[in-house]
Specification:
alpha/beta, six-stranded mixed sheet, 23 helices, 39% helix, 17% strand, globular
Length: 751
């Protein structure tokens, strides 16, 4: 057996003695090991070792040779002599056996069902684990980083890896992921097959490997309910810490040079005090012409788009209506454009019935997006009312998105709806939905025959082509539309938290009357309740929401829909007050609710309720919990209150105002680049592979929450991004608002 490696593995006397960083990721089937490992390796520009591919390759060859997988010695002999070329490129690692590329074949259901027989063969494991270890450290030494995923990787293969992570997830989540990977429809048969592939395989493998609990020194990450980007972020933070420790160990930890003072947002340096903002910004821009910049980059550089002031006068917004026959994916496309699950989607026709208006934005242009029910001709009853509402939306729209199922083609209903659209004489953008591959684009081309111009092929479910579609919509939108301006009204505050934490009691206390029902039984509130309340000389709209239970996806009936409405209310709010019960330990559910607020991009205030029930011992314990569990939101204002007695409720308004001020804050481009120029001069990005990434330019792309875009010559490590975020908060006083930092890598022009 041989594996493709940077150099001969047999020459490695002491694996792991090089300077490369090794990352080992273990976990049960369907926990996300492969996906996370590939994305981490790609972010680090390192190698990836799929140890499971080795077992699958042995399984494939044994089946090709009609070998009995229960013959342990015979299977071990195949593993020992296997002619295997295993790639380590995260962008597309190949698996070649005897000159045959079997990359796709080893992921088939046939192999997945039988690989456990090989993976539990202790003779095979000893052979492959040795090879895995050699390849892991050899790749890390050459590429700087190598990520390995698979069974025993954190305990047996690489217990001395620099970073060791155990990914976990619920049984239901893991089976769903594996079914999606195999592109299987949800059915009883699929669930039974996935239980066999995932749960049974875990039971079999656990007889010879311990991957269900984290060993000492291994960091566990529960991926249930997390986006893959969040998991990757956590792993990269561990990598950054390990790299820093390795650098300190090799070179010693020098005392950091004191950073020169950076003025706050109100200060402007003059030449007498040192270089001005303009001087520093000019120095930072030096050499930018040597880099490949697109039109959007140039617009930011020349026009400083990020400094566009907010409009002082309201104008009527354009209206975009989404129409089509039932079940062509209208609501799915609406959610894709909004960037969140706002419209209810279900795999059956007739879910949407009314005209529903949503605020939408694309490339800085605001407009109303109208979701409609499925249009049908010559129908009666509720179907007629639904079609009638869709026709009203067409007449009121400035632009109509006509959705057609590209897989089905033009139906009689589509042709009848087209006649309605022609009578309305509004601009129509033709959308060919459910185009998931190039073959679908060819089928969509047939829609030119409708005479509506270019059909835009999209996949509303996966996002394919949605950007080009929205660019076409913007080209048709007038500056002044038919829709009313957005009525912002008072600032909207969402009260969120676990059931029975005191949200309704706090609302009643602030309103100084019984506005909502309060009971000792948790879950009294089901629907979000909006109440306009005057506090601190201002009007506010407080939204009392249903308590978010621990397992929303497993809830049924009213509890399930109450949780959905709570999330929708949070999306409509500007700032969230997360209530925590001070007399009880900070729970996992509290942390998930805070994470939900962060994902929504809303400003944040933490309110510790029932403060009057604390004794001295609990007070000390709570401070330790806050320091340990809430360190990632240390920037959020804290208010200690008692909803029952009204104690310190007056402190809520200053906290809300501070959070909203940060949420709305915009830093001028010149000031931002001056700040970064000074920061980089005192704390440059660490060397990586003998190269140093350089920050070229930065701008604040949006507010609410503040989003910064940094153009750089190379990858900025996540630890360095965190450092920039921390200094932004310190120097510009971002209190109570999340900050989003994006990095665009631009390479030098090739002469």
């Amino acid at each position: 057996m041989h594996t493709s490696a940077p150099h001969d593995p047999s020459a490695l006397a002491t694996p792991g003695s090089g300077s490369g960083i090794t990352i080992a990721i273990d976990g049960p089937a369907g926990s996300g090991k492969s996906t996370v490992s590939r994305l981490v390796a790609d972010a680090l520009d390192g190698g990836m070792l799929d140890t499971g591919a080795m077992y699958r390759a042995v399984t494939w060859l044994c089946l090709e040779q009609d070998l009995d997988l229960t013959d342990r010695e015979a299977v071990a002999a195949v593993a020992e002599s296997l002619d295997l070329e295993l790639g380590t490129d995260p962008a597309g690692a190949t698996v070649v056996v005897g000159g045959i590329d079997i990359t796709a074949q080893i992921r088939s259901e046939r192999i997945s069902q039988q690989v456990s027989a090989v993976a539990t063969n202790t003779l095979v494991r000893a052979i492959l684990q040795r090879r895995q270890r050699e390849l892991l450290f050899a790749t890390a030494d050459q590429r700087g980083f190598c990520v390995a995923e698979g069974r025993d990787i954190t305990t047996v293969v690489a217990p001395d890896a620099h970073v060791r992570v155990l990914l976990t997830a619920s049984d239901e989540e893991r089976m769903r992921r594996r079914a999606d990977e195999l592109d299987l429809e949800d059915s009883e048969d699929t669930r039974a097959r996935m239980a066999d592939q995932v749960l049974r395989r875990d039971r079999d493998d656990s007889t010879v490997s311990d991957f269900l609990t984290a060993a000492e020194g291994v960091d566990p990450v529960d991926t249930t309910g997390l986006e893959v980007e969040d998991v990757v972020e956590r792993v990269l933070m561990l990598v950054a810490a390990a790299e820093s420790e390795q650098e300190d160990a090799l070179h010693g930890a020098p005392e950091p040079a004191p950073a020169p003072p950076v003025p706050n947002r109100a200060d402007t340096r003059t030449n007498a005090d040192g270089p001005s903002d303009e001087d520093i910004e000019s120095a930072l821009r030096a050499g930018l012409s040597d880099y490949s910049l697109d039109e959007e980059d140039m617009a930011l550089l020349v026009g400083e788009d990020g400094e566009t002031p907010l409009p002082t006068t309201q104008r009527n917004l354009p209206v975009v209506a989404v129409v089509g026959r039932p079940n062509v994916g209208k609501s799915t496309l609406v959610n894709r454009i909004l960037g969140r699950r706002e419209a209810v989607v279900e795999d059956r026709p007739g879910v949407t019935r009314d005209r529903v208006f949503y605020e939408a934005e694309w490339s800085g242009k605001d407009f109303w997006l109208v979701d409609t029910g499925g249009w049908e001709d010559r129908v009666q009853g509720i179907a007629y009312r639904v079609a009638e509402q869709a026709e009203v939306a067409i007449t009121l729209a400035d632009v109509v998105l006509f959705i057609v199922d590209a897989n089905v083609g033009i139906t009689t209903t589509d042709e009848q709806l087209l006649r309605v659209l022609r009578k309305a004489k509004n601009p129509v953008v033709l959308v060919a939905n459910k185009v998931d591959d190039p073959r679908g684009e060819l089928e969509a081309a047939a829609l030119w025959n409708l005479g509506l111009g270019e059909p835009y092929p999209v996949s509303a479910l996966h996002g394919r082509g949605s950007g080009d579609l929205l660019d076409a919509v913007l080209a048709e939108l007038p500056e002044e539309g038919r829709g009313a301006p957005v009525d912002r009204g008072p600032r909207r505050v969402a009260l969120v938290g676990r059931p029975n934490v005191g949200k309704s009691s706090l609302l009643n206390r602030l309103a100084k009357e019984q506005r909502v029902v309060v009971d000792e039984v948790g879950g009294t509130t089901r629907d979000p309740v909006d109440e306009k309340i005057s506090l601190g000389g201002k009007d506010w709209t407080f939204v009392d929401t249903a308590g978010i239970r621990r397992r929303v996806l497993q809830s049924q009936g009213a509890d399930y829909y109450a949780s959905l409405r709570t999330r929708a209310a949070l999306d409509r709010a500007e700032v969230a007050v997360v209530l925590l019960e001070a007399s009880e330990p900070v729970s996992t559910q509290d942390l998930k609710i805070i994470d939900m607020v962060l994902e929504s991009g809303r400003a944040l205030v933490l309110a510790f309720n029932k403060w009057d029930l604390l004794d001295e011992e609990r007070h000390k314990q709570l401070e330790r919990e806050i320091e340990r569990d809430l360190a990632h939101v240390a920037w959020a204002p804290r208010v200690n209150i008692s909803a029952q007695t009204g104690r310190h409720a007056d402190r809520l308004v200053p906290a809300l105002e501070a959070s909203l001020a940060s949420w709305d804050m915009r830093i001028p481009t010149g000031r931002l680049n001056a700040f970064l120029g000074t920061l980089v001069a005192s704390h440059p990005h660490p060397l990586r592979g003998g190269k140093q990434s350089r920050i070229l330019f930065a701008t604040q792309a949006r507010t609410r929450p503040p989003r910064f875009v940094i153009f750089a010559s190379g990858f900025l490590e996540h630890g360095y991004r965190r450092f920039i975020e921390r200094r932004l908060r310190e120097d510009f006083d971002f209190t109570g608002s999340p900050i989003v930092i994006g990095v665009r890598i631009r390479e030098k022009r090739r002469l």
